Structure formats: structure tokens, C-alpha cells
Amino acid sequence: MHSVTFSRWVTSALVFAATIIGIASASLAQTGLPSFSSQEPISGMIGNNFMIVMPLVNVGTGIAGAVEVTSVTFAGAVLSSPALPLPPESISPSGFRTLVLQFDGKNLGAGGTYLLTVRGTYKFGTQTLGFAVNRFFTVSIATGYVQTELQQWAILDAVAVKFDSLPHVDVDADNQEMLSYFQSRPEFVNSGIDVPSATVWATLANGRDIGIVNNRDKSPEIGAGTMPSPAVSPTISPKASLPSRPPQIIPIVDSELPVSSTYRVLNALGPTFVTPDKDIASWLTLKGYTAADGDASLDGLKKVGGEGVFYIASRGEVLREGPNSYFALWTTDRLSLGFEAALFEALTAQKNPFKPAEITYFFADEGYDDPFTGKPIEKYHYAITSEFVRKYWKQKQFGLNSLVYIDACDSSSVATTDFKTACFEASASVYVGWAPADPNKKAKIGGSTASDTARCIFDRLLGVDKFEPVGGPPQRPFDFLSAISILPAHNKVHKYGLGVYKTFNKDGSIKSDSFLQYGVNPDPKLGQFGLLAPSILSMSVDESALDNLTIEGIFGTNPESDGNVTVGGVSGPIVSSLPASPYTIMADLAPSGEGSAGDVVVEVHHHKSNVARLTQWQGTFDFTAKGTQSLNQHIVYNMSFRADIRQNRPVIDGPLVEPDSFAEPTLGLVNPVSTAKFSSGGEAVVMPDPNEIDTYKWTGSGDMVAVILPIPPPVPDNWFTMLGHFADSHTQMNMDLSESLFAGTENVHRHIIDPPTDIDNLPEILEFCPSSLSVTVKLDDQATILGAPVPVPIDAGPCLGPGPVQSVLQWSNIPATPGTAPDPNSAR
Q1: Which are the contacts of 600, defined by CB distance < 8 A and separation ≥ 6?
Q2: pTM metric for this prediction
């Protein structure tokens, strides 16, 4: 029976015509004119009332401004509803306005076909033009689906007309008026006002609810926490009555990265609302995440599944009251005949259509102002519930360690518990929403506060440093709890900081007080989200070990499962990790050439960290020791060493600290590829007393091997090493050079005058004079080790030879090797 009736109303409208009344100028025609037609309508006789529901469509290419329907005729029948002219409403290209027309049908013959003519005016540019749309209808008795749908459209239209007629000065008074209206209509089986959310709701006979929503603020000055002026409330201080924040639900145990690199960032609101979706999406893309296909329509939301990040800016509302209350989330889909027909087709074909528990109706401001009238556009939209989430999102599941952020009023209130639970059942790891500080109030949000809160969180999680940047080098990514912790400090624009939204009554008392709240999936295997990107704090090189690059930061637990480290364009696996604070990972580092220094990036679950640069120097230090007369020793060190000399930021939004703050006091800096050559020579003749003449000769030359202490066996004969550290400064390094020589010797020939005797001593090992030396080197902003303008005197200390030894160390400028000097614009 339903299918026959459905077919009948589809096929009964066979002919239509559209006429534009008025003449447009040639210039207007060139820019594209609006043009009017109608989409498939439904119609039928209910009692003596003939009803038509017909979308009036703009099929042209220009906006039809301030469209007024001024005349409707149908076979001489009297139009009983609506009252004409209809309020002006602009219609964009491909947009529509659904006309709900009711005629006195007592003089209409069953089976007769009659012409409907709709006339009106619209504005295009500075001109007022007219239009007419004609369509034939065959009179038939409405049954089944058509009857139900016609009755529903009639009551929904009546509700909208009633709401539009209210003064819209006092929300509570408007809500009470709407409740009285719902209670007076037999089409509604239940109705009420949800006190915390101040929402009027009513339930139709088919089980679907209607919510009259007037909750999300547009005013940025209110979102900024603007207090009532002292003239309004000279004696009341809202701060005195601020409730304390309830604790968060469950602490996050670990800071894990999403396994999925797909994101879905949606906006269901028009441009008159301040939303951050474009920024968040661009930042995620910048950091290597991939956008999922879809929007905030019902069909788009059915596609949700597999995301590592899900964010939506929308309207949220609590419908019904008490234990039956529930949360619903606004979509971009307007209530339409086409969608209702699709629901009916799916129902008759048993294709599992939306059930009343899965979607509901909201009537609210879309977030668009009519470009001609300037009034907010208010329409019916579909909204989804927890049952929708269970039906579609649970089936596909979010990615492991996912973040779900519902940026809407009441999105984390008590009535939202089931919606949140449904998200957890769909494997959401962490759920973020807005809750009321007082459960007897609503969690109202708006202005720029909610938008900036989301911007701040995603900015700090991703390390893009676009929102209220910290100054100096950009900030690296931080974990979720750190990002949440700094929200109250962002109070330069927002009086109460971010993550808090307040509105006030005229007397200065608090009207609504909301705060951002997060919940963690009770399943410990799913409740581990804490990062959106790995983050490098600092690095150190252990030249003595195979796994010789140590990186501190945050990388999630067990990053070696699929993680890798890229150094200077060469990638290798994460070898091991230590769950410390800060977290530490180790990776192999090439001793020289490609992969030995430069840009370092950690990648875990296909998410890349900030770029940290490991600096390398290769240069010559020239040591000369001059003894008595011509005795001399010369060592040329061809040094290669590496270090992370970047200032870093250990605390979110905190100051930069010098690299020594997170390094061992002494680091083995010499790279084993370093080399050295020594030579000894010269002679000195001295008389320690009148009866003795001593002749000293220094001999020997050769190569020296760079080693790291302690030296593993076998110990080479001739070796050297360098220890060093940065003395609380990235522009000053202390170096200690040590050596051991077994190839340099000193021979002493002693001649005794009386009685004449010659004695040749056995050769003694001629060690570096001294065997260790210390020097401080300076670095410029480009990490160039500045040369010594004059040789630097070294305290020789005890040394072989007949007298004091004058030792100096000399070097020229030693620049960082190409591509390894710290990047001042890299994230720290």
C-alpha cells in the first residue's frame, strides 16, 4: 500500500513551467540570473484539506535575494495556510525553500488535475524582479507514508512559524512559550524543557524528537570572558561565586601516537560562527596526516571509521529530561523531502534506514545570515545520536590511540554519557568535549573561546607554533596533558584563559560556566592517546658504542616496533628505547659521511617529529711544545666531533635552556675517524754542575689513534682522545685533550769531565707535554668554532727535559660542516 501511494505522488506531477516576470538589464544577465523551478513534491487530501509540500528551487546561477512568495493559486481553492506574503528569504544557486501549502479542498474533485501557480518577487542586485512557478497536481486521498509525511511537514512548519513570531529577547520566556505551544498540539506525545541546556524539545508520534536550539554564542566578546560593566553591576563580583572545576574522569596512563595517520576534521556550522576547522586541517596536513573523504552531512558521518583524529565543530543539544535525556549532534543536512523519501524507500525495501533513535530534528540558526535581509537563517536540520554512532562508527572503528574531539555545547555533560560511551565502543581512545561546571546549568560555548581552545590544543600537539607563538625558535610538539595544562595561561585575549567559557546575567551573576573536559577509554588497550607527533628534546652522541645516537623526547611506548630515525637523509631503525622522563631512544649513527650528522627526524607510526640538527665539526688543532734550546714536540690533531648544541625547551610554553642542562658534565666528543700526527726533535746541551755536560735529544714521529675512554683492549701504543662539554652555553665549549705516546723518545748523553766518563741513558718515553690539556673555545651564531687570534699558552706542567717547556695550542676558524649548523627556525 505504501509503495503504491509513494509511486502515485512521484508520477502525478508530470508537467511544470517557470516564468520570470520583469526584465533584467544586459549586465545582470551576463553575471548569471537566478531561475526558479520546483523539485518533486508530495500532495494529498486529508479530510477536506488538500496539502502540497513542494521545494521551490533556484536552478539559476545567481543568488535570488529576499525571495517573497506573494500569491499561490490552485483551481480556485482557498489557501488556508500559510499567511501571505511569506517572510523574505534568499535562495542561493541549487538552494531551495520548502513550501507547505494547505487548501480548502471541498470543491476539488478526486482524480482531477489542477494547476498550482506560485508567484513572488526577489532581488537581484539593485533590481526587484518577479517569478512564477507552475506545476500540475492530481487530487488523491493521502494514505500511509504520504499522509504521515504531510502531517509532519505541516506541524514542523507551524512550529517554525511560531518560533519566528517570538520576540527573541528573553530565551527563557521564549522557551516557555514554545513549551506551551507544544503542549497544546495533539501531534506531540511528549514535550519539555531541559533545564541545564535550556532547550525546548518535543516528541512526534513517530518517535522522532524536535529540539528548538538557541545555545551556541556567536559573540566573540562574550567568548573572551567580558564581564558586565560596573555600571550594570557595581557590587557583584562573578569571580566570588565561581565553582571549582570537577576532576578529569580517568588519567591518561601512557602518551601514545595514533596508529592511523588519517584525520577527519569537520564543520557543521556556517561562517557567522567562529570555528577552527580550516586551521586544524591545514596543520594536520602539514604534519603528514591525510584527510578522510566526507563532510558533516549524514552520509558523510556514516563514513567515519579508521581515523587517528576526529574533530567536529557543531551544535550539540540535550533532548528530553531526567533519565531519558540524551545528546544529539547537528549535521549540515536540512530536513528535505528527498531525504525523507529515501528513508521511506529504505524502510519499504528493508534496507535498514535511520531509526527514530538514530537521528532527530534540530531547528536552529545555521550560521548564515541572509545576504539581503541580514537576518540569521534558521532551518530544520538532522542531528545524530549515540545510536547513530553505534550503528555506523562502531562498525568501522576509530584507529588505535585515536583522539575524538566534539566541539559543541553539552558534548561532555551528564546527558552525553551514552554518546561518549558509544564513541568509546567505536575505539575512541580519548574523548574531548565541553561540560558544565554546575550540573544544573548547560555547557554553553561560543565566541572565539571554543575555537581558540581547539587551536591551542592542536597547535601544541603538532608543534606548528601558529597559535599565540611562544617567540624565538618555534615550539616542538608536546603531549596532550601538557597542552591541556597551559590553557588557563592563555588569558591575554580571553579573560579566564582557554578551556573555560562563561556568560553572565545582567546583574553580574553567572549564567553559564563551561569547561573543556576529556575522558579516557576505560579499556586500557584503547585509552593510551597522548601525542599527535613524536618530539625531539635533545640528542647526544656516544662515540664508543654501536647504538651511538641517544635522543630524548616523547615518542610513545615501544617506538622501536615500527619507528625509524633519519640522520642527514639516511634512515635506520630505532634500536632500543628506555621508558624514562624524558623518554629516550637509541639509534645507529654513521661515523662519517652521509648519515653521520645533520637533520635528525624520528618517525613512529608514520608520524614525523620536529627536525633537530646534529652539528659536526672537522678541523685542525696544532699543538707545539718548545723545550730548552731546540727541543720541540709537534702534534697536529685532525679532529672530527659531533654534538647537539641547540637550545631546547623542556617545558611547554617555557623558556629555552642551554644544551648543558640535559647533558652529562663530560662527553666523549672525539669521533674515531679523527687522526693525529706527531713529531719530536731538537737538542739541548746543559751543565747541571761544573763537572757534567748533558746532551738531550728528542726523536720520533708517527700516527696517533683516536680513542674513547675507557679504552677497550688491545690498547694502541699511540693514542689520543678529547673530552668536552658545553658550559651552560651553546656558544662556549670546554675541551680536554689527552694522549699517550710510546713512539716519541728522549735520549740523554752525560759527559763527566773529571774523570772523563760518557754515559748514555736508555731512551725514555716522551709524552705529550702535558699528557692532558684544557682549553675553552668560543662559537658564533653559525656554530663556527672561532680561531685563536694568537697561540693559546698551555700549562706544560711536569715534562721530560732539562728545563721548562713552553706549550701552545693554535687553531683557525672551524665551521660546522655543511648542513649541520643549528637551524634558528627549527622547532625546539
Answers
A1: 536, 539, 549, 551, 565, 566, 567, 611, 612, 613, 614
A2: 0.86
